[in-house]
Design brief:
By secondary structure, the protein is of the alpha+beta class. Strands 1, 4, 5, 6, 7, 12, 13, 14, 15 and 16 form a ten-stranded mixed sheet that branches. Strands 2, 3, 8, 9, 10, 11, 17 and 18 form an eight-stranded mixed sheet that branches. The longest helix has 24 residues. The protein is globular and about 65 Å long. It binds flavin-adenine dinucleotide and FE2/S2 (inorganic) cluster (FES). Flavin-adenine dinucleotide (FAD) binds next to helix 2, strand 12, strand 16 and helix 9.
Amino acid sequence: MSQLPGKAISYWIASTPHASNFPSLKNDISVDVAIVGGGIAGITAAMLLKRAGKTVAVIDVQQIATGVSGHTTAKVTSLHQLIYAELMKEIGEIKTQIYADSNQAAVERVAKFVEEEKIDCDFSRRSAYTFAETAENLDAVKAEVEAAVQLKLPASFVTETSLPFAIAGAVKFDNQAQFHARKYLLYLAKLIDGNGSYVFENTRVEKIEEGTPCQVVTAAATVRARDVIVATNIPILDQGLFFAKNYPKRSYIIAARIDPVRAPEGMYIGAGSDYYSIRTTPTSDGGLLLLVGGSGHKVGTITNTEERYQKLEAYARSRFRVEQFEYRWSTQDMVSFDRLPYIGKLTPFNKHVYVATGFSLWGMSKGTLAGMLLSDLILGVDNPWLKLYDSTRATPFLTTESLKNNLEVGFHWLGDRLKGLKNSSLTNVAPGEAKLLTISGNKVAAYRDEQGQLHAISATCTHLGCIINWNSAEKSWDCPCHGGRFSYSGKVLHGPPVKDLEPYKS
Ligand SMILES: Cc1cc2nc3c(=O)[nH]c(=O)nc-3n(C[C@H](O)[C@H](O)[C@H](O)COP(=O)(O)OP(=O)(O)OC[C@H]3O[C@@H](n4cnc5c(N)ncnc54)[C@H](O)[C@@H]3O)c2cc1C
Ligand code: FES
């Protein structure tokens, strides 16, 4: 493997305490609302519910904000690359206005938390830009400006930016924001804990049963609650079929030291599908890191993921005066087929179990919005924005993208079983190599580490039985069907699976 840029850890995690801040759940407890998942959606909901007088318990399988929210680019904006012109055509002006107003309100909700609680999280107001480097995407950018202005968003068309290269044009949103997502969420989590409310880390929720009260079951104990919010990025419960209403997109970020004098102001993203996302963040030693993200793909469909980092490295070197690469990381988010998140009841039959997913790589605003809407739902506050995001809506199944994706899933389920048919010997796996094998009819995923130790596990995903695929940069086994990920030793890294892969015993 060639040298990859920087240390393999998210800057947000590397620059905050990674050791557990909160205990794991050991005894049964009762609260008003149990919240599964301590990312931006779960923590925002918990914070608002606690403020409204409810007792809450946030339960996370890892540490708070080390999931997607600990690996984000952390731009807090209602400018979601290019969306408004298309939404206007697809769902009409009234609904698009709700999308605009609600996401702007979420940006301001974050700003208000920071101000009210005096949160030290590198929050700063910035302009957000979506730029067309060439004439190719210029019309789309201009259409976005027109739509956004019509929706009374703070939008304008510009041809000059502080990027160190020329662009054909950009849509600019004023008064957006950026922050250190983990500092922000850890601070809120500390405010949530106490006075009958709890935050638990290192606690996997295995089962949720709706009832009076609902039961949130973990290996050690059960949380009883009137209401439950499933904020696990992709819901760990299959009932709402959210794994078929979204697809999981994995994307990559590198962080490089850059001379502050030459750094771009503002937050940028390119137009089109092969885009780069750009922002800077201050470091504790007074320096500045340039973050460049992009190179996304559907989870589990690429094995040579090193190339994705190398592409970002080459881009950063060609466009900016990079001094040194310091960090690299990747993560994934659920992309909704109709471009709207799912916020509301798990299914039309559930009375007290709620979900939030499908933030489509813009969850700093949409995850915050989910927290706002779900807390209103639980508190019985009538919120006119809720209908647009109704998690039980049927439309996503009817989109061409959805049909294509679900056909592809079927293909993976069947076709991937033919992978590794010719490989049947564990001894043929060289150090540093990973292989799918078929041994006595069993699908085996084998990785031999650089020290020569073999890690052989079942290759059949514990979610719905697809065959996993190797991810070389992250040294993980990723599922091409719904984005489940496992470590090379079989531990679940990302839902929807909740069960680890069994070790293979010969
Ligand atoms: C590369 C990339 C860059 C991005 N950049 C931006 C950006 O600049 N701006 C923006 O607005 N959005 C951005 N996003 C999107 C945004 O980061 C996400 O939408 C958001 O962080 C998702 O938050 P969440 O609360 O849904 O998930 P998470 O933060 O993943 O939280 C879910 C939590 O649930 C926990 N969990 C899972 N299963 C269980 C279980 N069984 N029991 C208990 N806990 C469990 C996980 O450990 C996790 O902590 C980006 C996304 C990607 C992929
Ligand atoms: S994530 Fe659904 S089958 Fe693997």
